[in-house]
């Protein structure tokens, strides 16, 4: 099942984190499953890396699959 | 006693428990110990308010005099409210709120689990929806009891005191009268004498795990089923009913 980042929160431990996530982020029927990850286990890109990591993709639109003819029988990709 | 009157009394008790405790919890809005808990406790308050609305609507139909949920909620006098005394106690500090909450949640869950099988179809339908929410309320109040009880020395001592203080209001939850007996005989509601030992056992299990001592049963407060309230109740009503009393029939 695909999970999407909903937000961050404080909690004393993992169980309360799941519970808090339910109360803070699913009150309006946003989901049926919750993953919580302690922020110390998240490794992320740095602001200073953005240019070298993402800018080079800006002018390589040929990487989008819309440029290829996909046979009918393949269906939705 | 006529069954209709007994059922009406019974519904008022169920509805008033939810409405008054829900109102109490709503007082935490914007004052919770942390943002997450502020939202969580208000979710519980709103759930309880939802239960009260459904039950009041049905109570109005059972009464048969065209009363709406608002009439039932807002236009009674103090002695006509039948919520358990524990529901109207002030919030105190967060440990006080949690102690009050778990004792009520456990009671409420055991009652609603039986109401799901009520011979009264409307009661059964309301309970089927509510019981899922109540199960979550209990889960949350249990988690906090464990963390505060088995937390620091200070949190342990403070919530132990909370349980000691609230204990004399637990007896009132299980008092039964003529209306209860009529409702039990009709298969509409559960016998609280059967629920009491189960409640006690479950509460004890959580307190044990939380390294807390279950208070001993001493003198118990009672009177809610006859509408005798604690000194706190009038203040709740004056706030709760202010708009309808000052501007009868007002809408927004």
Which terms summarize this structure?
heterodimer, A: 77 residues, 2 helices, flat, B: 252 residues, Ferritin, globular
Quick overview of this protein structure:
The complex is a heterodimer of chains A (77) and B (252). With 77 residues, chain A is mainly alpha-helical.
Could you explain how this protein is built, in words?
The complex is a heterodimer of chains A (77) and B (252). By secondary structure, chain A is mainly α. Chain A has a domain at 9-37. Chain A is built from 2 helices and no strands. Chain A starts with 13 loop residues before the first helix and ends in a 23-residue tail after the last helix. The mean pLDDT of chain A is 88. With 252 residues, chain B is mainly alpha-helical. Chain B contains 11 helices and no strands. The longest helix of chain B has 29 residues, at 35-63. Chain B starts with a helix and ends in a 6-residue tail after the last helix. At the A-B interface, helix 1 of A face helix 2 and helix 6 of B.
Main sheet: strands, sense, barrel of chain B: none
Radius of gyration of chain B: 18 Å
Instruction: Give the rounded overall mean pLDDT of chain A.
Output: 88
> In this structure, how is the largest beta sheet of chain A organized?
none
Determine the structural class of chain B based on helices, strands and strand pairing. Answer: mainly alpha
N- and C-termini, Cα separation of chain B? 39 Å
Distance between the termini of chain A: 17 Å
| Estimated helix fraction of chain A | 10-25%
Runs of chain A with pLDDT <50, length 5+? none
Instruction: Report the radius of gyration of chain A as a whole number of Å.
Output: 19 Å
> Number of helical runs of chain B?
11
The share of residues in extended strands of chain B comes to under 5%
The CATH homologous superfamily of chain B is called: Ferritin, core subunit, four-helix bundle
CATH class of chain B: Mainly Alpha
Order of helices and strands of chain A: HH
């Amino acid at each position: 099942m695909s999970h999407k980042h909903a937000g961050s929160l404080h909690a004393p431990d993992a169980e309360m984190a799941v519970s808090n996530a339910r109360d803070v982020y699913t009150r309006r029927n946003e989901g049926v499953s919750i993953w919580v990850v302690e922020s110390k286990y998240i490794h992320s890109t740095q602001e200073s890396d953005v240019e070298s990591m993402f800018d080079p993709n800006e002018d390589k639109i040929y990487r989008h699959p819309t440029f290829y003819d996909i046979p009918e029988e393949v269906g939705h990709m | 006693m006529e069954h209709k009157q007994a059922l009406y009394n019974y519904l008022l008790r169920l509805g008033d428990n939810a409405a008054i405790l829900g109102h109490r919890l709503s007082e935490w809005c914007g004052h919770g110990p942390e943002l997450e808990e502020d939202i969580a406790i208000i979710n519980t308050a709103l759930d309880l308010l939802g239960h009260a609305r459904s039950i009041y609507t049905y109570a109005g139909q059972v009464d048969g005099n065209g009363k709406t949920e608002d009439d039932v909620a807002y236009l009674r006098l103090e002695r006509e409210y039948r919520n358990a005394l524990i529901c109207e106690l002030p919030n105190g500090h967060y440990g006080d709120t949690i102690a009050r909450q778990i004792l009520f949640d456990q009671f409420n869950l055991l009652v609603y689990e039986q109401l799901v099988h009520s011979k009264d179809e409307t009661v059964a339908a309301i309970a089927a929806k509510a019981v899922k929410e109540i199960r979550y309320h209990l889960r949350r109040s249990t988690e906090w009891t464990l963390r505060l009880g088995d937390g620091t020395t200070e949190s342990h001592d403070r919530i132990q005191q909370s349980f000691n203080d609230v204990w004399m209001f637990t007896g009132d939850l299980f008092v039964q009268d003529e209306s209860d007996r009529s409702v039990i005989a009709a298969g509409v509601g559960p016998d609280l004498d059967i629920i009491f030992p189960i409640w006690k056992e479950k509460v004890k299990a959580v307190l044990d795990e939380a390294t807390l001592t279950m208070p001993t049963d001493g003198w118990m407060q009672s009177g809610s089923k006859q509408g005798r309230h604690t000194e706190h109740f009038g203040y709740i009503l004056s706030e709760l009913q202010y708009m309808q009393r000052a501007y009868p029939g007002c809408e927004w």
